[in-house]
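Minutes, project check-in
Item: structure for the 316-residue chain
Input as provided by the requester:
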Amino acid sequence: MTSGPAAAAEPTGGGPTGPDVVLADFARHLRSERGRSEHTTRAYVSDVHHLLSFAADRGVVELRDLRLADLRSWLGEQADRGAARSTIARRAAAARTFLKWAARTRRIESDPSLRLVAPRRGATLPGVLKQGEAGAMLDVAAVRADDEDPIHVRDRAMLELLYASGIRVGELVALDIDDLDLHERVVRVMGKGAKERIVPFGVPAAQSLKEWLVVRPHLVGARSGPALFLGRRGARVDPRQVRSMVHDVLSHLPDAPDLGPHGLRHSAATHLLEGGADLRTVQEVLGHASLATTQIYTHVSVDRLRTSYQQAHPRA
């Protein structure tokens, strides 16, 4: 993107308005005003960069010249190339957020995305573990922790907490020691939009966390701070390390789906509903802003019920 891609009109107050500056301002808006995570911020900025580059290729070099037809063409091209509906929906959301912000800050005169319609995200989930597979996964982690390697003890505690609480991997790695209440068996989580919630966990997770806290001092270093989970070099554990660990442990279960930490979140929610938890409770545990987001798990439970019925009932 040179000086071309949909350069912005000058906002109120003057100052530099090149596309790189506008994207940097938009990123700050997402972080400070909208409370978006670094992951979401990077994704939205990348999506808007893609839009502006597409517009520049079509000869739209000023942001104020961007029209609804350009947005529709942008999304249509991605659909023609086989992009997933979820990707197109996310990019449309990023464009709407950006252009609404641009109009509010008077970088453009009006928001061309007001009538932009994108495909809804498909109500689908990645694979989830069966309850027996989840138990087997935790058994593998427990066996590995028997070697008393602090990292393996930590891995077991992280797996137990992920599955017990359904928290996101970003929420897990952000936990500090003071966020944990082993007596009440709850953890304080800072979720999306800087919304705090209290999430319960069970006895097995509490026991594995106690064992981790005993060996945690072996890894403490200058960069540890209050972080609950540490890497081998003493710094706060990274989401990539957690993802790699989950894949590694599940690789020991030949029939289980290859999931990441988010798959454990889906599994926890599905198993809660299968065990009789009501939808509102699951919504609160997961930290969903909308009940509609949580309702997707009812489809998974019903599908499993139907499969079990067809396998077991003589007149299914």
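Outcome recorded: The longest strand covers residues 186-190.
No further action items on this chain.
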